[in-house]
Write a structure and sequence with these properties.
By secondary structure, the chain is mainly beta. The chain is built from two helices and nine strands.
Length: 206
């Protein structure tokens, strides 16, 4: 399947992120942005030079030690309505990589989605995503045995109606990652906000 254009990608992503964690569909939140942003410079690789981008290889696992995440990765596509799929609600919750985004380590924003809650099953795999701080490490293990390490650069909490699709899904000139979940106040219609973690490639290995 041919990947959607960047514009279609951003529109589909925005539609998806109006869907709630735990499988509940939500209406857009009020347009006023809530929230917060924590930012800082990317962590140094220790060499003084940016790591080289990696060849395409699909991610199979995601590790975020600071918030005790160690999850296999599903591969998500597009639903029938052209919105981006979200991981299924299940007792063994897993995050999912959007397969029409770059793989981790390629130039561009690699996009991974996860739930904050999974209905009757309780907490989701990204329940503590909003606790991440700039400089903390995210590791993606790839199918070819390579490891792509990212340093958190920013954490944002935004109202769903103000989801910054261009900032999240737009072109960048280096390998980056976006982790996305729900957040903020929870009402009968679901969560009102999204938590977005921005990260940049900081190292590679095997």
């Amino acid at each position: 399947m041919t990947p959607p254009s960047r514009r279609a990608f951003a529109a589909a992503a925005l539609a998806t992120l109006l869907a709630g964690c735990g499988g509940r569909t939500e209406r857009p939140a009020a347009p006023a942005a809530r929230g917060s942003e924590r930012g800082g410079a990317p962590a140094s690789t220790g060499t003084g030079a940016a790591p080289r981008p990696l060849a395409r290889s699909v991610p199979v696992r995601l590790l975020i030690p600071a918030i005790d995440v160690d999850t296999p990765l599903l591969h998500l596509g597009l639903a029938a309505d052209r919105s981006v799929q979200v991981p299924p609600v299940s007792a063994h919750d897993r995050a999912g990589w959007y397969r029409h985004s770059p793989t981790p380590g390629q130039v561009g924003p690699s996009v991974i989605l996860g739930h904050v809650t999974v209905g009757a099953y309780g907490d989701g795999v990204f329940r503590h995503l909003g606790r991440l701080r700039p400089g903390e490490t995210i590791t993606a293990r790839l199918e070819n045995g390579t490891r792509a390490e990212f340093a958190v650069t920013r954490v944002r909490t935004v109202a769903k109606a103000d989801f910054p699709a261009d900032e999240v899904y737009g072109d960048v000139n280096r390998p980056e990652m976006r982790l996305i979940t729900c957040g903020g106040p929870h009402t009968g219609d679901g969560y009102q906000d999204n938590v977005i973690v921005f990260a940049a490639l900081s190292g590679t290995g095997s």
